[in-house]
Design brief:
Length: 179
């Protein structure tokens, strides 16, 4: 079994309480957006965002996206522009020792505006407020813009997972940062 699929399996088996998030208005480059907890109906727009930034097949099929949004062990946030989801972030919150970014994606039309920074800042604040000690994630070794973003937040490479991604067999860097 691919390492990525093993991680999905472990995420779905542990169910705890849902995590709350208070909707808020955020401004980026003089443009207002709504940041809110993801809704099950956001899954289709999450897929559309993935289709704009990843080659086919997208990394997460729709059934996995829906399960993740409903996962009681995770928090998914949607950034909305005029009722259209334009970015999202997922955070696995199973263990207070370590939170884990499961996915972060910004629609191609909204990239390079600082939205990735905004979403990571929100994830950091949320986890720090709940006393999480660390945050981890995996990133494709070829995703240079994501690597630059994570480096700016102080993430360091913990290990390399060979052929981690089933869609392209790219390696993944497992990265971690102290909160």
């Amino acid at each position: 079994m691919f390492p990525m699929l093993k991680k999905f399996k472990s995420l779905f088996l542990n169910k705890t309480t849902k995590f709350d998030f208070e909707e808020k208005l955020v401004t980026i480059e003089d443009q207002d957006f709504t940041l809110r907890k993801a809704l099950p109906s956001d899954a289709i727009e999450f897929m559309q965002i993935q289709e704009t930034i990843y080659p086919i097949p997208v990394p997460w099929p729709i059934d996995i996206v829906r399960m993740e949004i409903d996962n009681k062990n995770a928090l998914y946030l949607s950034l909305v522009d005029d009722e259209k989801v334009i970015a999202f972030i997922g955070i696995s919150l199973g263990s207070q020792a370590e939170s884990h970014i499961t996915n972060l994606a910004v629609h191609i039309d909204y990239q390079s505006m600082g939205i990735g920074h905004l979403l990571l800042n929100e994830a950091f604040k949320y986890c720090r407020d709940r006393k999480y000690a660390k945050m981890s994630l995996e990133v494709d070794v070829t995703n240079k813009s994501a690597l630059t973003l994570y480096d700016a937040f102080g993430f360091k490479v913990k290990t390399v997972h060979k052929k981690y991604y089933f869609r392209n067999h790219h390696d993944a860097l497992e990265m971690i940062v102290d909160l």
